[in-house]
Structures are given as structure tokens and as C-alpha cells.
Amino acid sequence: MKKFTLILVLATMFLLTACEEIPTKSLNTEPELFTAVEEQDLSTAEEKEESLPQDSIGNSEENVRTMALADSGPANTKTLPSNKKEMSIEEIILKYKKILNISDDYDEVSTEESQEMSGDKYYTVNYNNTKTDESLWFSADIYGNLRNYSSYSETNNKKENNLSSAEAIEIVKSILYELYGDVSKDFIITKDPSMNNLSWNQSYYTVTRTVNKVKVPTDTLSIEISKSSKNIVYLNVNTASNYDFSDTSNFEDLEGIVDQDQGFQAFKKANKIYPLQLKISDMDSYYLYNKYSLKAALGFIEKQIPVSAKDLKAYYRDPYRPMGLGSEDKLESNEAMAEAGLSPVEQEHLDSVNNQHSLEDAEQKARSLFPLKDYKLSYSNFSPYNGIKGYNKWSLTFNKDDSYIYVSILANDLSLISYSNYEEGRKEDLDPISYLNLANDFVVSKAGMDPSKMTISERSKNDQGDDYHLVEYFRNLEDGQILFNDKVSVNINKKNGKVQYFDKQWTFDLKDVEKDLAVSEEEAYEKLNDAFGFQLVYLRDLVDQEELFRAYYALNTNKLDYSGIYLVDGQSGQIIDLYGKEILTDELVEYSDIEETKHPDIIRTLLENNIGFSGGVLDRTKAVSQEEMFRILLADDFQSDPLSISQEDLYKRVKERKLLNGEEANPDKIIRNRDYARYVSRYLSYFDDIARNNQIFKDAYKDIDSSDPDYGYLVLGKLKKTMEFSSDNLLEPDKEVDRETFLYYYYYLKANN
Questions:
Q1: pLDDT digit string (tens) for 692-747?
Q2: Which residues pair with 408 in a beta bridge?
Q3: Phi-psi region of 637 (alpha: psi -120 to 50; beta: other; left: phi over 0)
Q4: 464: pLDDT confidence band, cut at 50, 70 and 90?
Q5: d(CA 79, CA 547)
């Protein structure tokens, strides 16, 4: 027992230390207990909706994803009771042998019975064919509802593409109907651009459940289909209700819902937009000390709060929030450095460290703040605080028997940086004001901070659904803006009414603040509405009635980043993420002029793999610009669709890949044959050295000779068939590359390289 407790506490200590340095979820929920839905929120990228009948769902034109607003509430939430009767393992095997088309050729079978921490039970059935080395497994709950499925065979992994998007969608629809019947006809099938690629063996789809033609963003299926065998090779069900998506008994009806305009007005009251300063760290620099700049922004200081579609009350759930950035590098001992001979930089650092407080001072301070009389100091570490030059912290662990307390003290002034103490207890829940008073008292008495100089999130004034109450303070700047990255988090254990976690993220070398905002708060709301769309969704009520799904209004987060925080650039009005980068909200759609192209099937296949230009018209004879070409050419590098790549990130990657190789970036430049040949040779890298040796190619063309620096690139493009020309003895170096031609070239470039 002691060994297990030690491991648990050390793991908690590591997570708390990491919270001071890297983006992470809030400490209001134990890290190992996050639900599958929350985990998918972090990994799922934007998805392009595939065609369903327009009358099958009220908002079928919208993109869908398992989104940041769609967390299922407190961790480890038990699924809702099923209306079905329990099934035996024999009945479950027979059911899915038929649905999944499992043959009798499998000569090895095994079964497992499992139970989750929530109490939910399920069976797993494993199959293996020793002759063909094929295998599969599936799991279902005790009511016979499928949880997940996976299969393996060499046929599924062949490098063949026999599958069109239309065929894949029919396969998805078929399995949905087998599992859930008629209600599945209204489900929304979306394609994940980060998971679909011309050269990959599978097509990846996400299915979002709907009830009463309203999305249930917490209830989704992830499905992978082999392009060669056309078989489903993976299926996983994520749910905050139960695994029977045909069961709608726990969903309230839509009678009496208010209109969307009223909902948006209530939403604005619940989701206050603040003027912010974002601390933008230099993520691409490997410095010991953090480099950053500040960006003026407007946005929420917490995860979005949906409002009820009936009474317009705000629905407060348990969010997670990202923390600051930095590094945790151990310092070498003074003696070892002295033997090697100190450089001026090393000497400067040691001089600054020597002026900071010692371990003994830090330990004494910790013991003065907390009741540690009978606790032994069992671990200490001296390291930089958040990568800020000249600022360090002492990380201390105290233990007594099976009890551990973690304290982090700033070495500069002995102020409290973080604290962790896990104690069981039994206590009635306090009211929100009492929790707020407890947090304020801790911030003042233990951390020596003034709550009046910070902004407390609206969320912290309300009851929360798990075992902890989170109070989060954001740093106020003198001009009335909030420094979003500087915050203090206090978690109070509801079982014992004591502060269990404390964490302080602070900037001590704050630079000039950009005060002027070109965008008003009202304009910021409208920009968010325009970019994301405001919609009706079903979410499980985990506050008042745990077993009921209610209708709520919320912003769509199909294109939002993992944080769940909505931000608008204070100068440009662009939608941005926590790193100040623009979140692009354009999407690929079917071209109305696709049948006018010479190769409509190729253009359509590219669209199915999220490759193309924005807008509903291809405009096939329009010349391609440098930026448009690079967006598509490098989409695979970003594992994303071309429209989601910011110009800054795009040209940074262009530089890394040396595609310009000394040329100036010119996003609006019209691409001609010579440019395309040159950029593609560099893209393929191994072509470039050959192409630059013009003299190895015979002068055999009427319109260009080897004195032209692009001659070798064009000849290689012809020889390697990455380009086509109108005549055998012409290379047409200055002919513009139009959109259709470029997409045609790109298709064969990816198919053959």
C-alpha cells in the first residue's frame, strides 16, 4: 500500500511540476481519470462533412467534430442505464458474428469480461486465424451494444485505392443501420482532413449522433475503412449517454425552446468577453530561457458556457485549461562547472543563483506556511521557474508515513508557487461563496497576493459537478486588460473543505503592453458567431438531472483548437488560438463547375482527400498563385487541409523545406511552368541536384536552352512525368499553370512519389 501511495503522490507531484511549465488540463480532475470523450477533444482535427440528404438534418451543411464544448462533465461519469435486457456472451457472439460478418475460418477464439471504475461491465471477444495470420476483436457492453471493433489482415493493408468517398459513406451508413436502425439515417458523417491522405491505406470518418435532428456532440463513432479491401478495420464508440444510440429516452423534447437570437443574447451574458493580453512564447526556439511577445486580444477567459434552449440558464460544467510554457532543466553542480572553467555567461548565472535563497530557507518558509512539523523533507529540486532568466524555484516533497505534501517556493523571494496535498475526508458541500472565501484566504495568507488585483472567472462562482471546486484568478494589468497566461488556480476538496492544489503562473519580466484595441467587445461576439456559427446541441445535464440530455445553444467548435477558449485578435479581428495564430474557418466544398474539367474524377478524389481551393467554384483556367501552390503542395506536411494552414506557418515550412532556396517569398506571384518545375524538384529534394546541372541535358527544345537556369528543372519535369507539355520540342517555360492543371499534376505527383 505504501509503495502504491508513493507512486501516486510522485506522479501527482510530477504533474504539478509540469503544470508550471507546459500546457495541461486543469487540476480540478485527477489526470488519469479523463473520459474518452475529453481525450478525443485533444486529438480530433477539423472534419469535412460528407453529403447526406439535405432534409435528413436541420443543419447538415455545417461541419462537425467531437468538440471542446462536448466534454461529458466530471471524469469517469457512469453511462446511463440501457433499456435493453442483459445478454449472455453466447448471444453477443452470435449477434456480432452476423453484423461484422465474422467467418468460421478463425480457429482461435478467446473471451474476456471487464468492469470499469464507473461500474460499467463489458465483454471482449478475440479471434485469430493461424493459417492466414488474420485477427479481429470486438467488445460490447452486457446489453449487447457495440463499444469498439478492430481487425487485421494483409489484404486490408495493401497499397491499393479501390474505394471512393461515396462507397465509403455507404459502408458507414450500412454499419450504422445494422447497429442502430432507422435513427442512424439522421447521423452526420464527417471526414477528418488530418487523417485522410492519398497515399494512406485507410479512409477515416467520424459519425456524430443526432436526436430530433439536433447534434449530440458527446456521442460519436470513429470509423476506418480499408481502401483496398473496402472493409471496416476499426470502429470506436464514444459516449456520454450509453452505447445504444437508438435509445433516445433520456433526451428532452424540443417543445418550448426559444429562438436562436434570444439564445445568443443570453449566451453573451454567460460568456463575458474580456480585453486580454496573450503571452506568445517562441515555440520554435530551443532556448534555456523563455522568449515571448504580447498580443492584444479579446475573448473568454474560460471554456465556453452553453445556455439552455428553454430557460436560457447558463450550464456550468467542469473545464480544463492550458497553463504557461517553459522548461525544467536541472542545473549542474557548482563544483563540476568550476573544474571545467567558467565562461562569463556561466559566471553571471552562478552569481545570480548565489544571491537567491537556499534550500534551508525554502524549507523553513514551507514549514512556516503549512503544518509540516512531523513531516520529513524527502525530495528537493532547484530549477528555472517557467524559463524566466534569473528566476528559480525550489520544489520540495515532504512525507509522513503514507502522506505526502508537495510545495514549490520561488527562490528569489520565498513566495509560494505551488502546493499539493491529498487528504480523504467527509464533509457536506459548501456554498459557492464559502469556496470563494476559502480560496481568497489561501491566496492572501499563503501566497501573499491581493485578489482585488486579479479577475476571478465567472465559472468559479458557481457549483461544479465533481469532487473539487476550482477558483481561477487571472492577472489584471494597469490598463484594465487581463494577462491571460498569468493566473492562479486554487482547487478545494469538497470532501474535506480544504485547499488541495494551488498553482501560480506568473511573468516577472513583463514587457510593453499593446494597449489599443481596434475591435470592440460587441464586434468580437459577432466575429465569433460569423466564424463558428451558433447552434442547438444536446448535452448531458450533470448538474441538476444527471440522467437527462437537455437542449443548449452554443458556438460550434468544429474548427476550434484543443483549448476550448475563443479568442479574437484585438487588431485584425481574426479568430486566433492561444499561440496567437489565426484559426482559418474556410472549408472545401464540391465545385459547381467540376463537370467542366477534363478530369472530374481526379478533382473529386482530391476533394475527398481535402485537397483543393476555397469556394464553390474551381475556376479551372485561373492561374495558381505561389501561396495557393505551396498550401496544397505542403498540406501533407501539416497533416491538414490546405485552407487550415496560416500564411505564417506555410512560409516557415517553405523555408524549412528550402523550396524557395534564396528566392523572395511572393504569395501573389503567378506560377509558370518554370516555377512549378523548380519548386517540385526541390520538393522531391533528390531531383534538385540533378536539375541544377543543366549541361547534362541535351539542348533539344525550340523555346529554351541550357543557358536558362530553369532549363534542367523543366527537362527533368518532362522526363519524370511530373509535367505535361503541348509539344515534344517545347517546354513552354513562361506558360501560366492554371488550377485544373496544377491539381492534375499534384494527383500524379502523390500517386507516383
A1: 777 677 888 999 998 899 998 999 889 888 999 999 999 999 999 999 999 999 99
A2: 395, 418
A3: alpha
A4: low
A5: 9
Residue 599, C-alpha cell as written in the block: 478530369
pLDDT in tens, 532-581: 999 999 999 877 777 899 999 999 877 777 778 899 999 999 999 888 88
Residue 338 backbone phi and psi in degrees, to 5: -65, -40
Closest by CA position to 150, among listed 228, 226, 50: 226
Q: What is the pLDDT of residues 475-521, one digit of tens each?
A: 999 888 999 999 999 998 888 889 999 999 999 888 777 677 899 99
Name the β-bridge partners of 455. 474
- Cα–Cα distance between 704 and 638 in angstroms, integer? 36
- CB atoms closer than 10 angstroms to residue 372: 18
Task: Please choose, from the candidates 126, 93, 100, the residue with its C-alpha nearest in 3D space to the C-alpha of residue 231.
Answer: 100
Distance CA 632, CA 567 (A): 27
Q: What is the spatial distance between Cα 620 and Cα 521, in angstroms, rounded to a whole number?
A: 41
Most confidently predicted of 227-231, 422-426, 624-628: 624-628
Residue 500: enclosing H or E segment and its boundaries? Answer: strand 498-505
Which stretches of 163-282 are DSSP H helices? 165-180, 260-270
Burial pattern 226-254, b for ≥16 Cβ within 10 A else e, equals: bbbbbbbbbbbbbbbbbbbbebbebbbee
For 233, the grid coordinates are 478495420
Closest residue by Cα to residue 738 from 629, 614, 592, 617: 629
Residue 66 to residue 236: CA distance in whole angstroms: 13
Between the alpha carbon of residue 269 and those of residues 71, 263, 525, 538, 555, the distances in Å are: 22, 10, 11, 20, 14
* Rounded mean pLDDT, 391-407: 93
Query: What pLDDT is attached to residue 323?
Result: 25
Looking up cell 474505394, which residue turns up?
163
And the C-alpha cell for 35? 473520459
Average pLDDT, the chain: 81
For 689, the grid coordinates are 541536384
CA distance 173 to 50: 12
Backbone angle region of 678, left / alpha / beta, with phi > 0 → left and psi within -120 to 50 → alpha: alpha
Q: Where are the alpha helices (DSSP H) in 596-665?
A: 600-608, 626-633, 635-638, 647-656
**Residue 207: what pLDDT?**
96
